[in-house]
Amino acid sequence: MFKRGTINDEETPLLTESFSTTKAPRPYDEEPLWRRPFNYSVQHGIDPEKLSRLQRYRYYQRLAPPMTMVVPDHIIPPEFFTIVKVEQGEKQSSMVTIFSLWNTMLGTSLLCMPGAILHGGLFLGLFTILGVGALTCYTAIITVEVTMEIQMLEMFRKTPIEFADVIEYYMPYPSALIALGAGAASFFGALIIFWILLSNFLYGTGVAIGDMVAGQFDFKNLSHHGAVCDAYNPNATVEDLGSTLNDQFTFWSLQGSVPLYLIMILFPLCCLKSATFLSKFNSLGVVCIMCAVGFVIAKASMWGINIDLHDKDSILYVAPAYIDINKLTGILTLSFFIHNAIVALVRNNANPTKNRRDVTIAFFMVALTYSLVGVVFLVTYPLSKSCISGVTSGLLFDNISLHDPLAVVAKAAQVLQLITVFPLVNFVLRSQLFLGLFGDPFVSYKRVALFNVIVCVLCVSISIFYPHVNTVIRYVGSVAGLAYVFFFPCFVYLLHSYKNNTLTWYSAVGHALIVLTGIMNLISQPISLSSYF
Q1: What's the CA gap between 240 and 230, in Å, rounded?
Q2: To the nearest 5 percent, what fractions of the chain are helix, strand and coil?
Q3: Distance between CA 59 and CA 462 in Å, rounded?
Q4: Which phi and psi (to 5°) does residue 131 adopt?
Q5: What are φ and ψ of residue 404, in 5° steps?
Q6: C-beta atoms surrounding 196 within 10 Å
Q7: More confident residue, 32 or 136
Q8: Which residues are 400's β-sheet partners?
Q9: Smallest Cα–Cα separation from 398: which of 150, 115, 134, 141?
Q10: Helix, strand or coil for residue 252?
């Protein structure tokens, strides 16, 4: 292909006029388009030195693998390089990050907050909300920061990781299974709570619609602007709370047929292979939260202030502080639980250096929302305060008449939102368990159907025989929270600090006390402290 000759030094091009059998190259702008060097500007003439380098580069690249040679990047002309934009995923502003965290944390606990605050008293309860919020905020921050630092390691740079991967990186194999189980427990507890709430709201909405059709929907003569001691037993007194509900129609009963009817709606949605369609309705969560907050504020403006902090014999008495604070802490642990999903929510923050600030603002907003709804409803509710904590479900809607128009609209909105959220949470739970156990988030339709049958049976059973939302929330929160909120974030942070030679004795003691707090929170849940003091 080439004539024989002598190459005097390395600077001599491999292909020159004297050695090549081809004609001398024409000016670049006369060459055919397919022979132009990659990304070489057509506005410049031929440069013999750059052309020789390009030819050498091509020659090296075509050598057989045993003879492969690599041209150093620094001697390749810059005209031969192209800047390629690499997509890193759509970035989001700090505002979007904050509201995503706020929307995800605020859930069913919001509707239980007035009764939960009663367990700790008005002032101690409010202080506890802020205290638990600050503690869980700190563990959420160290969860994010440790995960982001581990993400920078060479072995993790190619694919995004979650906090569960960090646990597996630092701790033995059983720890990853424990973390998987704790995350699954939180999701499964949420499914149970959603089913109870759906049964409650669907039943109330159905009764209201039935009364409208029958011409018995009397909303003009509601006493106390719709406040009742028990919505499902309007004539009940405080002594009657907790008694068995006698439904007007056997085919539409709160603790019978309605939880069973939900199977026909939710089971087909849970069998979908992908939850992409349902995820489009995620924005309904913000709408429903605003409906609940607006409902409480509207009712409070009608009721006015109705509270007594001094006379213990008054029906309006609320203790400034109460000893059963452990029940409130159990509920709050799940109320602020976001630690198994927070990394995914902040990963696309446009300014990662602001993660600590954004997470702190989001937790403060959640604590403020819980305090607003709980305290405002508790302070303004015009009937006996024992009615708030005495209803079976513990939901604030159970203290409002079924014929109240605002309550009907709010419940209908909650039904629509929960019908879309339940399959999404079930999809996440199923994917995590199947991926951890079988290595495939779907496996087969038979196993997916069997899994959904088990979920539906358990949810229906608890909705019928034990529909106590407050109790379910605090037990699920204390169990899952001990692992994901208290133990793993603190222990992984200590291991990470030890590896980087930044561990101090006071940091170890402080994080050990946080873990001890989670243990005491779990142990105290079955105990009614007011029985001993």
Answers
A1: 9
A2: 65, 0, 35
A3: 73
A4: -65, -50
A5: -75, 120
A6: 25
A7: 136
A8: 227
A9: 115
A10: strand
Question: Looking at 32-133, which runs of residues are DSSP E strands?
Answer: none
3-state secondary structure of 439: coil
Q: How many CB atoms lie within 10 A of CB 391?
A: 26
Total number of residues shown for the chain: 533
Within 8 A by CB and 6+ apart from 423, the residues are: 266, 269, 270, 272, 275, 278
pLDDT in tens, 298-342: 999 999 999 988 888 888 888 888 888 888 999 999 899 888 888
Provide the pLDDT for residue 386.
Answer: 85
- Alpha carbons within 13 A on the beta-carbon side of 382: 13
Tokens 């149970």, located at residue? 192
CB 346 within 8 A of CB 97: yes
Show the 3-state SS of 128-158: HHHHHHHHHHHHHHHHHHHHHHHHCCHHHCC
**Please, which residues bridge with residue 249 across strands?**
252
> How far, in Å, CA of 16 to CA of 21, rounded?
9
Residues 337 and 485: beta-carbon distance below 8 Å: yes
Q: How far apart are the two ends of the chain, measured CA to CA in Å?
A: 101
Give the separation between CA 171 and CA 67, rounded to whole angstroms. 45
Please, are residues 328 and 171 in contact by the beta-carbon 8 Å criterion? no
d(CA 209, CA 410): 14
* Predicted pLDDT of residue 244: 42
Neighbour tally for 394: CB within 10 Å: 23
- SS3 of residue 349 by DSSP: strand
pTM (two decimals):
0.76
Give me the phi and psi of 60, to 5 degrees please: -65, -40
For 103-162, how does the pLDDT look when each residue is reduced to its tens digit (9 = 90+)? 888 877 888 899 889 888 899 999 999 999 999 999 999 999 999 888 888 777 777 788
Nearest to 177 by CA among 517, 464, 432, 469: 432
Q: Give the contacts of 241 (CB within 8 A, at least 6 positions apart).
A: 229, 230, 386, 387, 390, 391, 392
Q: What is the DSSP string of 351-370?
A: -GGGHHHHHHHHHHHHHHHH
Q: What is the pLDDT of residue 137?
A: 95
SS3 for 452-507 is HHHHHHHHHHHHHHCCCHHHHHHHHHHHHHHHHHHHHHHHHHHHHHHHCCCCCHHH
The answer to whether 333 touches 521, Cβ cutoff 8 Å, is yes
Nearest to 53 by CA among 68, 25, 72, 29: 72
Token couple for 204: 């109330």
Distance, in Å, from the CA atom of 263 to the CA atom of 502, rounded to the nearest integer, reads 53
d(CA 195, CA 259): 7
Contact by Cβ (8 Å): 475, 525? yes
Spatial separation of the C-alpha atoms in residues 325 and 525, rounded to whole Å: 10
* Cβ 343 vs Cβ 144: under 8 Å: yes
Are the CB atoms for 472 and 189 separated by under 8 Å?
yes
User: 279: exposed, middle or buried (C-beta count within 10 Å: 0-12, 13-18, 19+)?
Assistant: middle
* CA 509/CA 491 separation, integer angstroms: 11
